[in-house]
Amino acid sequence: MPKKILDPLPSAAFQILLSLVEGDLHGYGMMRQVAEQTSGRMRMGPGTLYSSIQVLLEAGCIEEVNLEGTDRRRTYRLTAAGRKRVREEAERLEELLRVVRSKRLLEGKYV
């Protein structure tokens, strides 16, 4: 896995991997899922989506799935390496959140 590109995992790649945790999706499905799981805070365009997909494919985090009897859209699946990588990133973010909470940054209003 290319360490420089995926460590830390860019937010677009993290969101793509998260979108695939519950099942296989095509690109448009990933874009919709990312928008949904971020409550619309992240709307991924095709350029970001497909360049991120390419990096994740090359890193072995996702794989293309050939589904018989479906349309011509490319469908992607999370690999074991991808599941491990998304879990590692979630743990990294959890640790950051622990530090933020210890500094009480989420309490009250800040300028």
List keywords for this structure.
single chain, 111 residues, mainly alpha, Arc Repressor Mutant, subunit A, 3-stranded antiparallel sheet, 5 helices, 9% strand
How would you describe what is shown here?
The protein has 111 residues and is mainly alpha-helical. The chain has a single domain, classed as Winged helix-like DNA-binding domain superfamily/Winged helix DNA-binding domain (Arc Repressor Mutant, subunit A, Orthogonal Bundle), CATH 1.10.10. Helix content is 54%, strand content 9%. α2 crosses α3. The chain is elongated.
What's a quick, concise take on this entry?
The protein is mostly helical. The protein has helices spanning 3-6, 11-19, 27-37, 46-58, 80-102, and strands at residues 25-26, 62-65, 75-78.
Topology record:
Elements: H1 3-6, H2 11-19, E1 25-26, H3 27-37, H4 46-58, E2 62-65, E3 75-78, H5 80-102
Antiparallel strand pairs: 1-3, 2-3
Helix pairs in contact: 2-3
Let me know the CATH homologous superfamily: Winged helix-like DNA-binding domain superfamily/Winged helix DNA-binding domain
CATH topology (fold) name: Arc Repressor Mutant, subunit A
Mean pLDDT: 90
Which CATH class is shown? Mainly Alpha
Number of helices: 5
Fraction of residues in helices?
40-55%
Largest β sheet strand count, sense and barrel closure:
3 strands, antiparallel
Identify the CATH architecture: Orthogonal Bundle
Q: What is the helix/strand order?
A: HHEHHEEH
Which word captures the global form?
Answer: elongated
Q: Structurally, how many domains make up the residues?
A: 1
Derived from helix and strand composition plus strand pairing, the structural class reads: mainly alpha
Radius of gyration: 16 Å
Distance between the termini: 40 Å
